Amino acid sequence: MIWWLRVHAMTASAASLMTCFLLAPLLGESSLPIPSFFSGNAAGVSVVLLLPVIPSCTLLYAMDRTPPHMEASAVRPLTRWWTTVLLTTTLLSLLTALGEWQLLDFPLALDMVRNLIGYLGAGLIIRRYGGHHYAPIAVMAIPLLCGLFGHGPGGRPYWWAWPLYDNDSRTALGAVIASALFCAGLLTFKTGCRRD
Predict the structure, then answer these.
(1) Would 64 be classed as within a structural domain?
(2) What is the DSSP string of 20-56?
(3) Is the residue at 67 inside a domain?
(4) 108-144 tens-digit pLDDT
(5) Can you tell me whether residue 196 is helix, strand or coil?
(6) What's the domain range around 64?
(7) Is residue 29 in some structural domain?
């Protein structure tokens, strides 16, 4: 088990997740100006909402560090282990976000969890149907594309641009979309075989 954790860079994944949540309260007011094609001006995307890209890409990279034929011939079913890792990551991030929300009065932490599970779900779907090499790259492109095309007139995000929602009336819709992506990603991961 220890070697499996080392080979799949679990310490790097855990470190990136905790660093993401440690930096979030410090960068709470920072925003990254991204030009918006539909709103007519540069829209600022909160850096806190972009931080979950780092742990999700790290975890997606860690999933594919070994050759596919080695894990396909493993004695133990590795999909259970990876499902446990993904669910544990989600639970730890949710508990950390609830702690930051209560202790530091930082409500964007819950939006970070939403984005993390959405990015992981989208990455798992892309990993299954597009190949494991493209999953981290596509996850990095999601917030960029949402920033470019997701702001409507008046600067409000469209309904499909769930990574951009921050403490407004659409937060519940964003959580539903991200949770659906995560569940669909887990289903495609558990049912599909690895594709190269």
Answers:
(1) yes
(2) HHHHTTTTTT-EEEEE-TTTSSEEEEEHHHHTTHHHH
(3) yes
(4) 899 999 999 999 999 999 999 988 889 999 999 999 8
(5) coil
(6) 2-18+46-191
(7) no
